[in-house]
Amino acid sequence: MITNKKTPNDQPNDPLHGIKLKDIVECLVEQYSWEYLASKININCFKKDPSINSSLKFLRKTPWARNKVEQLYIQTRKRLDK
User: Fold this and answer.
1) Which of 1, 27, 39, 42 is least surrounded, with the fewest CB atoms within 10 Å of its CB?
2) Domain that holds residue 52
3) In this structure, is residue 8 part of a structural domain?
4) Distance CA 29, CA 37 (A)
C-alpha cells in the first residue's frame, strides 16, 4: 500500500519542512513586532490592524510575500541557533 505520508527524512534540505505557516508568523511577531515586520516586509497585513489570521490569509494567497516571510524566518532561526 502506497501512502503520501512523509517522514522527517523525506525533506532533508528543506529548513521549513514540517513547520506551519502559522508557527512561522507567530514566531516572527514574538521575536520582533508587527512594526518591525512591516518595515522589513512592506505588506498591509503587517501595517494596518495586523493579526495572525489576516496575515495567514494574505500569505497563503501571495507567494512572493510568503517567500519573504519564510526567508526572514530562516535567517532568524539561523541567528538564534548560534
Assistant:
1) 1
2) 18-81
3) no
4) 7
Q: Cα–Cα distance between 62 and 54 in angstroms, integer?
A: 12
77: nearest Cα among 35, 36, 38, 30: 30
The answer to whether residue 4 sits within a structural domain is no
Question: What tens digit of pLDDT does each residue of 2-30 get?
Answer: 444 444 556 668 889 999 999 999 999 99
Query: How many domains in the chain?
Result: 1
Q: Which three cell numbers stand for residue 7?
A: 517522514
Q: Which CATH number belongs to the domain containing residue 30 in this structure?
A: 1.10.720.30
Q: How far apart are CA 22 and CA 60, in angstroms?
A: 10
| Residue 13 placed within a domain | no
Q: Residue 69's closest CA among 49, 46, 50?
A: 46
Question: In angstroms, how far apart are the furthest CA atoms of the chain?
Answer: 49
Q: Which residues 6+ apart lie within 8 Å of 65 measured at CB? A: 41, 43, 58, 59
